[in-house]
Amino acid sequence: MAKKFKAGKGYGRKDWDAVSDNPKLTDEQLSKAKPFAEALPALAASIRRGRGPNKAPTKKLVSLRLSGQVIEKYKADGPGWQSRIDQDLRRINKIR
Fold first, then answer.
1. What pLDDT, in 10s, does the model give residues 72-84?
2. Cβ distance 75 to 81 under 8 Å?
3. In this prediction, what percent of the chain has a pLDDT beyond 90?
């Protein structure tokens, strides 16, 4: 079953159409495939390095117990839920 084009993923319809007719890989081709880190070790190493430490960290790591309902509500709105909790706490406490 072919996947359908979904806008907003960093590529456009033209990109999708350019690769949408790629043939399926055979069992033989799949058996010869290498893991990403083995096929491109330098690129894999550069990705693993990450961004590095912040020059001036603005946030502190804390352990906080919240009700399951609160967590579910924030997570239901998608990625960035921890930042939204921070924003709401700043707004409630009148912190700019």
1. 999 999 999 999 9
2. yes
3. 52
